[in-house]
Structures are given as structure tokens and as C-alpha cells.
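Example record for the data management plan.
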Amino acid sequence: MPNPEESLKFVTQIAKSASMEILILFSSTNGFLRTEKSGGLDSLNQIAFGGIKVKVLTPLDPTKEDKINLIKSKFDHIESRNLQANMQIGIGIIIVDKEKSLIFEIKDDAKDNFIESLGLAIYIEGKSTALSYATVFDSLWKQAEMFRQLQIHDLMQRELINIAAHELRTPIQPILGLTEIVKNKTKDREQKELLSIVISNANRLKKLSEDVLDVTKIESNTLDLNKERFYFRDTIVDIVNIYREELNQKNIKIKHFISDEDCLYADKNRVSQVVSNLISNSIKFIDDKRDGIIFITAEK
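Corresponding structural encoding:
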């Protein structure tokens, strides 16, 4: 059928002729939107309300997910699942009662109008062909459910990690603050050394919880950068002081060649994290049996 207008009339006819089920594989998210705009989903929802099983598969563009889900919520008699966006196939397929199948060529998927978007259509009336397409549809249907379950699992995992990191960070600050107070008040050298170890490890735990939170933000695209002007040398000095106890224990010296005038415009916390990770890794991989030196330089 080379005429798109005739194809659309024909698909309406075979959909109304269904006695058991209608299976629809849209070519893309836009194909689904075109069907909704043309009133096709309304017709399918009425057919489904009459007792015919209607199942729809849609390759989902993540940027339009909210819009698609809102539309689907209006047609509660239609069973619907989403495929990954890379499952777009350039054709639309309709299978009726596993006996009839109609294949639409999508000539221009960017068009909002069905007539302008369609190319040729092929109608096949035969059980063997329809069953073949139905088997592919069922396989994709199961795959879509697995994909949905993986999304749910991934979301739950991120939320659990996020909550755990927040809960972990909450008690760390009072531990650091109170330990610093006790350390400043005590006169005993051995106790000061023990408290310094507590502070050092509490700082490492704090850094770990912040790193975990950052990973969850990066994965969910919610990481914001707060840019400001600051002197890089001051930042380096502050970070080195955090690792002072570990540096002394391994007899490691840090030498930095950074001018007092080196001013950065960046996210201070993120820059500090990078430098802190580099220093931490350097300390970790310096041999315990011999002294070491860490050099820090900065170039424009």
C-alpha cells in the first residue's frame, strides 16, 4: 500500500476486526506521540475496554519519558511497556489475533503528522508470518520488563547508598569536633597521639562518605559546581594539614611549588577532593620502610 491515507484507514479496520488481541510495536517515541495526536490511542483504549487485549511497546527517548508516562496513564486499559531508546527500528508493526500483520515504513520520523511520516505499508494475512512477528514481540515484551526491573533495582540501590552515606556523615562531624577539643585540652603526649589517629581516620571516613554522595549525584546528573575565587596555595596547606599525622607516621615530606598569587576560579571543594585523592594515593604507595617526598606543582 503506497498511499499513507489508505494505510491509516486500513489499520483502523483491522484493529476493529480483532477478537482476541492487538500487539503494536512503535518505531520510536515519536511514533507513539503521533498515534496519540491522531486519536489512535483513544480508539485502542476503547477496543481494550471492550475486552480485547491491547499491548504496546515503545522505544523510549529518555528526554520525553515524563511526557510519555503521563500520556500512558490516561489510557489505563492498554498494557504498555518501554524499550530502550536504541531499539528504534524504523518500522511500525501491528499484529492482530496472531493472524494478520501490518508493517509500516517510517519515511520521516521527525514529522508530527502521520501522513507525512509514513512510507509504504505491507499487509500480510497469514498465521505463520503473524506468529513470527508475535514471537519477536513477546521476546521484546519480556526484555522490556527486565529493563524496567533493572531500572527499579538501580534506583533503589542509588537511594540506599545515598541514605547510607548521609547517615554515615551525620555522626562524623561531632566526632571530629569533640575529639579536637579533647586533644587541645589534654597535656599527655601519648593521648594526643592517639586522638590524632582518631581525627585522621574520622577525616578519611568523612571523605569516603562525601565521595559516595558525589558518585550518586554524578550518576543521577545532579552534581552542581559552585565556582568561586580562591588561592590555591591556601587550599594545599589546608589539605596537607589533614594528612599531617599519616605523613609524620611514614616520615613523608610534602614540598609544593605554588605561588601565593595563584588564584583559581573553580569549585573549591571539588579541586580539594582531587588534590586530596592524589595525596592520599601518594601516601598509600610510598614504601613504609623508607622516607618519601611528595611534590606538588601547579602550572597555568
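Summary line stored alongside the record: The CA atoms of residues 226 and 269 lie 8 Å apart.
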